[in-house]
Specification:
Layout: E1 7-8, H1 19-23, E2 24-26, E3 38-43, H2 47-60, E4 72-78, H3 84-100, E5 104-109, H4 115-124, E6 129-134, H5 144-149, E7 156-164, H6 171-179, E8 183-186, H7 187-192, H8 198-202, E9 206-210, H9 232-244, E10 250-254, H10 263-275, E11 293-299, E12 303-309, E13 316-322, E14 327-333, H11 335-342, H12 348-356
Parallel strand pairs: 2-4, 3-4, 3-5, 5-10, 6-7, 6-9, 7-8, 9-10
Antiparallel strand pairs: 1-4, 11-12, 12-13, 13-14
Helix pairs in contact: 2-10, 3-4, 9-10
Length: 358
């Protein structure tokens, strides 16, 4: 597959030679795409948003240098198909190769539904995946997740909503999440302790940054009065978490159509994501379990829950038994969940994952 067949070649943003102009290389017919660890691409349907994507990258040129040896390939905007399904299946084909090459991708889009195309590549490769979405609300009737759960192949292990607001998400949608054994964190929970989101982000093959998660005071104009939400600093923190994890996944940044969000906010997410690559240290799952600190916590009179702690980062994982497959899986967890188990409380994550495999 040749990426140049799928994308409109991006223009050069500046004649000035600065750090990011050397880091981000525009796609051309002479480039070997396999030599790049990170692919930056856009899937934008609104012409104005294509211009915004160019501006977002231009803004990066004004940011400070980051400590990295990686190179980023700027593929440009995906060529338009005759139908939306053409876009979905083009993305599936593109991501088959990205997954095979174990590459990282950054996607700018104005339609979150395109995530379905990336999911289909994982499905085709028969690879289990987890998705997290930072958003203020969820409507099961208007979300691509509804399509995924109806598919015969069950390659989606978990979907986590981070920042949901109770008054914006109806009971039917919460029932949908709970029925499918997915997770959600309310805005108030994450604001009180942002670290509770880190294990879910660390475990994600795809993470979606939805601009609707921002508090209105950080939007230039808005249709819905929403006095609650995350700040741009919060989104940068979540991008940092994802940059530090060992998963070579996809970060999707949803761009709004109505000029609500200052473009700097999008550029910051990309910068903090890339900047935190320097903290990757071949932690689990690259590091074998035998090199991790194994901690057995007694629950009740006869039962134990096993935790693993990284000697490099102090991050933690929990072992989940899968009886019908006669094996265990290792899932990221927080120190808070470990401390709860020491007090005799079964972590909610252990309960949910056990129920998934019943």
């Amino acid at each position: 597959m040749n990426l140049i067949d799928y994308f409109n070649v991006p223009q050069l943003y500046s004649n000035e030679k600065n750090f990011f102009s050397k880091l981000i290389i525009p796609l051309n017919s002479n480039i070997d795409c396999s030599q790049f660890k990170v692919i930056l691409l856009s899937v934008l349907f609104n012409e104005n948003n294509i211009t915004k994507a160019i501006e977002i990258i231009k803004i990066l040129y004004n940011f400070s240098e980051i400590e990295t040896k990686i190179k980023v390939l700027n593929a440009g905007n995906l060529k338009k198909g005759h139908t939306f399904n053409d876009v979905i299946y083009a993305l599936r084909d593109i991501y088959e190769e990205i997954i095979d090459k174990n590459q990282i991708s950054i996607v700018l889009t104005d339609n979150v539904y395109i995530t379905l195309g990336i999911y289909l590549a994982y499905e085709l490769k028969k690879k289990i995946l987890n998705i997290s979405e930072i958003t203020s609300f969820f409507s099961c009737n208007k979300h691509f997740l509804n399509d995924i759960t109806k598919r015969k192949e069950k390659t989606l292990l978990n979907y986590t909503f981070i920042g949901l607001q109770k008054h914006l998400t109806n009971r039917k949608s919460l029932n949908f999440i709970e029925r499918n054994k997915f997770d959600y964190l309310y805005l108030s929970e994450v604001q009180e302790d942002p670290l509770i989101a880190e294990p879910f982000i660390r475990d994600s093959n795809i993470i979606i940054f939805n601009y609707n998660s921002l508090i209105n005071s950080y939007l230039d104009n808005y249709d819905i009065i929403n006095p609650n939400g995350f700040t741009p600093q919060d989104l940068c923190l979540f991008a940092s978490y994802y940059g530090q994890c060992e998963v070579n996944g996809t970060i999707i940044i949803l761009i709004d159509d109505n000029n609500k969000v200052n473009l700097v906010n999008y550029s910051q997410i990309i910068w903090y994501f890339l900047e935190n690559f320097k903290y990757r240290c071949n932690d689990y799952p690259i590091m074998p379990l035998k090199k991790m600190e194994k901690i057995n916590v007694k629950i009740g009179k006869k039962n134990f829950i096993t935790f693993y702690k990284s000697p490099r980062t102090q991050r933690m994982w929990i072992e989940i038994p899968v009886k019908k497959l006669s094996k265990t899986i290792i899932v990221p967890c927080s120190e808070k969940e470990y401390l709860q188990s020491k007090n005799g409380i079964l972590p909610l994550k252990w309960i949910k994952y056990t129920e998934k495999f019943m």
